[in-house]
Amino acid sequence: MSKHHMRGPLQTALATWRQARTTASSGAPPRRTGVAYHRAVNHLQMYACMLRAGPRPREEVRDELSATCHALSVLCRESVPKVAASGAAHYVAVHARTALAAAHLADPVRGEPGRVGAALDGPALERFDPDGAGDVLPAERIAGAADVRLLLASVIAERPPARGATGTPWRITEDADGGFRAVYRDRRRFRRAVLPGCAGLDPQAEALRMGGEAVRLHAALAAGLPGHRTELARAQRQLADLARLLGVAAPTVG
Asked: CA separation (Å) from 45 to 10, 87, 130?
């Protein structure tokens, strides 16, 4: 199957995302906007899962998959407040869990602050966005992975337990089954994703772990990119707000 043919679903997903933005800006009722964003997430997630399941060799689609996963995490971060405003509480968690899986798979350091410095000089990826242009640098993908952690942590604090789709939580991994049916299984896994380091934790512990990890990632980015200090300060404030929501002391992040 050719790359051109495979990208047909990507173009459909980007068009659906563009339509969701148009719906939101038109002043449509919250439920209509929420449905439009849910459709967009479904389309882009399907494309990511198609890449994971084949038929093209994994090495051949590595960068395309990373770019798609980053785009999916951006879309889900955009969709969560829209879906929340529509009153669809269950899908708030579903979109936040999907964002977590996608951002982790797009993150070149897989959440490890000690690898950030070396990763900053890594190659850029193509940007899959309905209106944007330019490449996606490693720092943006790392920051996105940190921000998604804070997003899901806040969703858990506001709507516990915020587990996402029903079923056993899926520990995020690059491994994926092959075949058409695997695409649908993979899509459901994204919707109940947990980070490897959070597997087995209760909701509060998971939220606090993710908040701490987010601040450490932003701190590592700020160490290599001084202009990122504003984002670090924002993440620190968000972690403090999260702790207040949970009624605990803010964790010490070293």
From this structure: 10, 22, 15
